[in-house]
From TrEMBL:
Pfam families: YEATS
A single cellular component GO annotation: nucleus
Designated name of the protein: Yeats family-domain-containing protein
Keywords from the named record: Nucleus
PROSITE patterns, alphabetized: YEATS
Gene3D superfamilies referenced in this protein's UniProt entry, alphabetically: YEATS domain (2.60.40.1970)
Localization per record: Nucleus
Major localization listed first in the record, in broad terms: nucleus
UniProt record, GO biological process: regulation of DNA-templated transcription
InterPro entries reported in the protein's UniProt record: Sas5/TAF14, YEAST_sf, YEATS, YEATS_dom
Amino acid sequence: MMVERKIKVVTEQHNINKPAVNEGFPMKEWTVEIYVLDQDGKEKPAKCFTKVVFHLHPSFDNPVQTFTEPPFKCTNEGWGEFEMTIDMFTTEKGGKSSIQHDLNFAAPQYENIHTIQFKNPSQALQQLLRETGPLPSDEERKLKKVDGGSKKKKSFDVEKMADGLVKLSEDDLLQVIQMIHDHKDDNTYIQNNLDAGEFSVDLYTLPDPLMKMLWDFLVKSSVVS
């Protein structure tokens, strides 16, 4: 699954009362902040990122600056314009997105919009991304709910299944994972992070025969009824 979000980079700058380092170039204080835009184009805290690293011009005493709380506000003083690299990290393995940002003093405040892609986000990251808009799998989930209501009542309850899965023993969970691997289809969304020992699945993307199989297993294990 691929999820796209628009990232807004907001830059503000103004002159400060300090001696000019280079004649004709007044000293400035500038700030860069990172936001995520929701589906209505409104600014939201970029909680999908755990840290943001700003790579400034090498002439700065501290050219690599890291921030771990939204809006990842980077404030510095200087006289020159330059292009910086901004790295934005999620909790995912390899979850780094990088953008180039032109720091300039043409206006007191300006904004730049960038489109960022999140490939196969974990369940935790999906929840954070949903705060700024639906995910591609949500439409399928909605259709499946509608489909379930318009046809004959299905012999399983997805919400009860989700509650029942967390009650299983480790051995039973391994059986469930194997069943999902053996019977999933092309629409099934799973994420298997071997390094972290994590397995996640979107139950709404499982085919009905597999859902029935899992439901029967949970009933047999006495975690749902």
